[in-house]
Amino acid sequence: MPFELADLIIFCEKIHHNGPSPSPTVDQQIRDALSLSEPFIAASSLLHVVKQQPDAETVSWIAELYDLLAIENPFRADALTQSLVLLRDFPDIPTITKNDYHGHSYQESFEVLLDLFLHEVLSAAVSGPSSDLFAVTPENSFLIGSVTSAEAAKQDLFISSRQVSAITRGIQFPKSEYEYSDPEGREVSCLGACLQLLIAGSVFSDGGHLGRNKEQLLPSIKSLAAKEIIKDPNGKRLLQVRTTRIFVPFCLIACCSLGHA
């Protein structure tokens, strides 16, 4: 029997006994799509997944993996955000099937559901920080979440009052609730706010509490230096850049250098 035919028979027997390879799960398909380096190709791959399974679980996975992949590699936060903006704006994005509290299905727009899940993900990313995130390190998910939050605002993907509150709390803005935060976490909270302002300060200060009191923004930031809230050397550089209004594209480098003297 020729060698090639023998191999073919063995291969067919394996398929018969083991069955075909299982198809990738929806979350794996979404992870694979978001891992693509070119945002348009990533968005097109995501669109294919959404069309295959246009339900709320798919949209939820997109928002969740957007956050998780940014934590894994903060330098990709910009590209990941671009991918979701392109996906949202595709004219042929389908409506999504969702169930109400009584289990009855109905149709909702993709954008509405994406906003809903991004609100959950980004609100959680910039809340706190919790006691396990007080250390100033490059792996601190609160600091990375602050970068992701700012990218979402800058690129018009998503912005909410929770993100603005994280900034006002972090820079100890007048009438914010920073007094109720854990003093040990104020350095990280401040650094997260400075990262957000450095990336998307013009967006965050365009309205809401920050916009109505814009004239107090710079004095609040300057007072942080006087209070010596930030002890980390690279964090002090970040505060200095924000204070002097020098907008330079090193915010991600600064984030990934925090905790390293």
Question: What features would you describe in this structure?
Answer:
There is one protein chain. This protein is mostly helical. It has 2 domains: 22-90 and 106-125, no CATH class; 131-261, no CATH class. The chain contains 13 helices and 2 strands. The protein has helices at 3-18, 26-34, 39-52, 56-72, 77-89, 110-125, 141-154, 161-170, 186-204, 208-212, 217-227, 233-243, 251-257; strands at residues 96-99, 105-108. The protein has a two-stranded antiparallel sheet. Helix 8 (161-170) packs across helix 9.
Tell me the layout of helices and strands.
Layout: H1 3-18, H2 26-34, H3 39-52, H4 56-72, H5 77-89, E1 96-99, E2 105-108, H6 110-125, H7 141-154, H8 161-170, H9 186-204, H10 208-212, H11 217-227, H12 233-243, H13 251-257
Antiparallel strand pairs: 1-2
Helix pairs in contact: 2-3, 2-4, 3-5, 4-5, 4-6, 7-9, 8-9, 9-12, 11-12, 12-13
What would a concise description of this structure say?
The protein is mainly alpha-helical and 261 residues long. The chain contains 13 helices and two strands; from the N terminus they run αααααββαααααααα. It is 62% helix and 3% strand.
The strands making up the biggest β-sheet line up spatially as 1-2
**How would a textbook summarize the main sheet?**
2 strands, antiparallel
Mass-distribution shape: elongated
Label the structural class.
mainly alpha
How many domain regions?
A: 2
Poorly predicted segments: 8-12, 244-256
State the total count of DSSP E strands: 2
Helix content: 55-70%
Mean model confidence by pLDDT: 82
Number of helices: 13
Strand content: under 5%
Write down the secondary-structure element order. Answer: HHHHHEEHHHHHHHH
- CA gyration radius, whole angstroms: 23 Å
Cα(first) to Cα(last) distance is 68 Å
